[in-house]
């Protein structure tokens, strides 16, 4: 259905009705959910199209907004996932804000689930900067798991090297070939200089994984401040913990 998006006075199409208050529109090549009060119908007549036109529209739609029913990263991993490990992936693909808390019990394969989600998003969006934040004792474990199971070679950076990366970001970020896959510890993340650089930088983290997310449950700590700062500049965020509630629900 042809329509006008009132806030920008832009012609658009209504793709589907979400409910009585919201609709999904296609505008500037992107899908967007907006209130019906911001839409003015131009032409409510449904026009027929040829089969070739339908195929072209369907292909364009899948390119612009890949379907969660199709896994573009299948057969790219060096493992056979358990059925339950697909559930977080599907849930993440259907997320409205590109964020998910993985709170499976110990032993159910949260690292594998995180890797599956990462590979799928990378296939869809061609990620430039990916960051994994974990306790210092787990940095090598995560590097090994992602290399052996997903053929993804992440670099472990200590605090000075991560500071240098943040400082040098402006020099290389405009290059389309710029890709960095980094693992750091929470010790590096909560460094005062790192927090300041994150708050001042124009950097965007394309994909952020934070293991043992209960580490930053206390809002009065430097770890929480750092985690909050970096999550705010990340496009996709995945939190992992086997103990989401430590003492109270405020955690």
From TrEMBL:
Family annotation (Gene3D superfamilies): Tandem AAA-ATPase domain
UniProt lineage: unclassified sequences, metagenomes, ecological metagenomes
PANTHER family: DNA ANNEALING HELICASE AND ENDONUCLEASE ZRANB3 FAMILY MEMBER, SWI_SNF-RELATED MATRIX-ASSOCIATED ACTIN-DEPENDENT REGULATOR OF CHROMATIN SUBFAMILY A-LIKE PROTEIN 1
Protein name: Helicase ATP-binding domain-containing protein
Organism: marine metagenome
GO molecular function terms attached to this record: ATP binding; hydrolase activity
Keywords on record: Hydrolase
PROSITE patterns noted in UniProt: HELICASE_ATP_BIND_1 (PS51192)
Domain Helicase ATP-binding residue range list: 91-251
Hydrolase found in the keyword field: yes
UniProt xrefs under InterPro entries: Helicase_ATP-bd, P-loop_NTPase, SNF2-like_sf, SNF2_N
């Amino acid at each position: 259905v042809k329509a006008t998006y009132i806030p920008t006075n832009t012609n658009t199409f209504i793709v589907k009705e979400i409910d009585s208050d919201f609709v999904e529109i296609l505008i500037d090549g992107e899908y967007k959910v907006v209130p019906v009060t911001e839409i003015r119908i131009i032409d409510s007549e449904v026009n027929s199209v040829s089969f070739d036109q339908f195929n072209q529209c369907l292909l364009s739609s899948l390119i612009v907004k890949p379907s969660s029913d199709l896994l573009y990263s299948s057969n790219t991993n060096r493992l056979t996932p358990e059925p339950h490990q697909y559930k977080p992936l599907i849930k993440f693909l259907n997320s409205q804000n590109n964020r998910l808390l993985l709170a499976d019990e110990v032993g159910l394969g949260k690292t594998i689930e995180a890797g599956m989600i990462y590979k799928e998003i990378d296939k869809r969006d061609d990620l430039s900067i990916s960051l994994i934040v974990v306790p210092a004792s787990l940095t090598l474990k995560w590097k090994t798991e992602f290399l052996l199971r997903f053929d993804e070679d992440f670099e472990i950076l200590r605090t000075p090297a991560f500071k240098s990366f943040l400082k040098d970001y402006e020099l290389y970020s405009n290059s389309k070939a710029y890709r960095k896959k980094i693992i750091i510890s929470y010790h590096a993340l909560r460094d005062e200089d790192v927090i300041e650089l994150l708050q001042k930088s124009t950097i965007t983290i394309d994909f952020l994984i934070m293991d043992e997310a209960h580490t930053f449950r206390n809002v009065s700590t430097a770890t929480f401040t750092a985690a909050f700062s970096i999550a705010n500049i990340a496009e996709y965020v995945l939190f992992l913990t086997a103990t989401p509630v430590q003492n109270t629900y405020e955690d």
